[in-house]
Amino acid sequence: MNEFSNEQAVNSAMAQTTPEAVVAAAAAGKNDNVKVTADGVNVFYGEKQALFDVSLDVPEKAVTAFIGPSGCGKSTFLRCINRMNDTIDIARFEGSIKLDERDIYDPSLDVVELRARVGMVFQKPNPFPKSIYENIAYGPRLHGLARSKDDIEEIVVTSLKKAGLFDEVKDRLLEPGTGLSGGQQQRLCIARAIAVSPEVILMDEPCSALDPIATARI
């Protein structure tokens, strides 16, 4: 997975496969305010177990990186944090993951609301088959974050600027997002993720398929 840096704090979680377990260990940088807590997390895909008793705390307002060999369960664990594994029929979750001390696997929890609070950017760009503008506007409109067209436009522009894409697409916002280059599509997906002001952003190797210039921009 790509390494990330932050001027305030960088926390690194090393994950590697052993015969019994995927081990996650918190390393540099401490923060007393914990945002996400995992306790005894096990994940199964059918009969195959992908995660073994993973427990760790993730601090708020920090960058945390999970680093480990291919197939050790990094993506599986990330997908647990916003319950994306729920979309896989053969996936089964055991254990506990809490966001701000609330169990996100509580049956009473609204999964749509959870995914608004915990955004995700995948390894491969996956823009919606909509215009660049609608890719960004869809989430805020769905979650009622804007009261008017002007509010939506402000969110679209601000999100694209934060993702470093606005100057490249400002004159073609009504064109399909799928028509952008790979690096631009990934930045569009980042802009889409931050448009709903998530509290947590999960990034699953967002630059692994991109060239160095696109990686630097992201």
* Strand line-up across the major sheet: 4-3-6-7
Number of strands: 9
Which regions have little confidence, pLDDT < 50, spanning 5+ residues?
Answer: 1-29
The average pLDDT score comes to 86
Count of helix runs: 7
Largest sheet data: 4 strands, antiparallel
Using the alpha-carbon principal axes, give the shape: globular
What are the defining features of this structure?
218 residues, three-stranded mixed β-sheet
Topology readout:
Elements (H helix, E strand, L loop, with lengths): L9 E8 L4 E5 L7 E12 L2 E12 L3 E5 L6 H8 L9 E9 L2 E2 L7 H7 E4 L10 H11 L6 H14 L3 H4 L12 H13 L5 E4 L8 H6 L1
Parallel strand pairs: 1-5, 8-9
Antiparallel strand pairs: 1-2, 3-4, 3-6, 6-7
Give your account of this protein's structure:
With 218 residues, this protein is of the alpha/beta class. The chain is built from 7 helices and 9 strands, in the order E-E-E-E-E-H-E-E-H-E-H-H-H-H-E-H. Strands 4-3-6-7 form a 4-stranded antiparallel β-sheet, with helices on one face. Strands 2-1-5 form a 3-stranded mixed β-sheet, with no helix packed on it. The protein has a two-stranded parallel sheet with strand order 8-9. The longest helix has 14 residues, at 149-162. Residues 1-29 have low confidence and may be disordered.
